[in-house]
């Protein structure tokens, strides 16, 4: 129930969803003065949430910045790669279709090759409301084999459907099979805060490594300041999803 409810709440809070509601009300209501107010509200939403500069500034505050490889002086036992990096809706299934978060697995492999982590744990089942047979971690496992990794250095966790379950099921494997080891959580910069809170709530000794950045260096160029960018709605979607995730996870006792 929590899984489905969280998706519904996230949808209702999206700026794009609310903007559509204001425009629909502005068109369909009978009283002209109220229609105008809703249309103006919809226009304000459109201009504000499509502004590239504003969302970038918010993301700069939210994302955990990247860590240079040379600053990682500790050797971690496992790098835990959080799921959410592949496209499960594409066929044929004879390859891996990566999405925006592919840096998670690519940088994990770099860390492995540099000797910063000894093993890679790939975590992720299905986060969809359908297509439960698709297990993301299975594809990431096969991808690492194609990269030349020894199967003894790959740990598979393919049950998790959300961040808490990533931590819970990964923690079960690591604590049972590799106790008293320190691990590195590898995920997107916007997602790392919630991930670390989940792992540490479960008593695991972990550090974080952020990847997959949505931010750009601060810029005051005219295109950033003035030109609407539809991709800004995607970034607000992600910010609100994470904010609601933190709130709901706190209420549920996951963090």
Question: Could you walk me through the main structural features you see in this protein, from its secondary elements to its overall organization?
Answer:
- The chain has 255 residues and is an alpha/beta fold.
- Helices cover 51% and strands 12% of the residues.
- It is built from 10 helices and 5 strands.
- Strand 2, helix 6 (136-146) and strand 3 (154-157) form a beta-alpha-beta unit.
- The longest helix has 22 residues, at 231-252.
- What Rg is obtained from the alpha carbons, in whole angstroms? 20 Å
Q: Main sheet: which strands, in order across?
A: 3-2-1-4-5
Terminal residue distance:
19 Å
Low-confidence runs of at least 5 consecutive residues: none
Percentage beta strand: 5-15%
Largest sheet: 5 strands, parallel
Determine the structural class based on helices, strands and strand pairing: alpha/beta
Secondary-structure element series? HHHHEHEHEHEHEHH
Share of residues in helices: 40-55%
Count of helical regions: 10
Q: Give me the count of strands.
A: 5
Mean pLDDT over the residues? 90
């Amino acid at each position: 129930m929590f899984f489905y409810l969280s998706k519904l709440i996230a949808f209702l809070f999206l700026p794009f969803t609310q903007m559509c509601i204001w425009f629909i009300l502005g068109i369909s209501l009978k009283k002209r003065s109220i229609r105008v107010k809703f249309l103006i509200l919809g226009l304000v939403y459109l201009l504000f949430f499509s502004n590239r500069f504003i969302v970038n500034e918010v993301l700069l505050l939210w994302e955990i910045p990247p860590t240079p490889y040379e600053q990682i002086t500790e050797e971690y036992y496992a790098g835990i790669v959080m799921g959410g990096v592949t496209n499960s809706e594409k066929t044929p299934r004879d390859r891996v279709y990566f999405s925006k978060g592919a840096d998670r697995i690519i940088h994990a492999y770099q860390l492995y090759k540099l000797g910063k982590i000894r093993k890679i744990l790939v975590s992720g089942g299905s986060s969809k409301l359908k297509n439960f047979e698709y297990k993301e971690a299975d594809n990431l496992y096969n991808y690492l084999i194609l990269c030349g990794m020894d199967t003894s250095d790959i740990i598979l966790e393919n049950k998790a459907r959300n961040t808490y379950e990533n931590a819970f099921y990964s923690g079960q494997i690591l604590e049972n099979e590799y106790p008293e080891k320190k691990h590195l959580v590898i995920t997107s910069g916007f997602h790392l805060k919630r991930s670390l809170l989940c792992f540490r709530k479960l008593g695991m000794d972990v550090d974080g490594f952020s990847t997959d950045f949505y931010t750009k260096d601060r810029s005051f160029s005219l295109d950033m300041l003035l030109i609407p960018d539809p991709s800004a709605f995607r970034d607000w979607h992600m910010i609100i999803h994470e904010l609601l995730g933190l709130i709901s996870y706190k209420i549920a006792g996951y963090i």
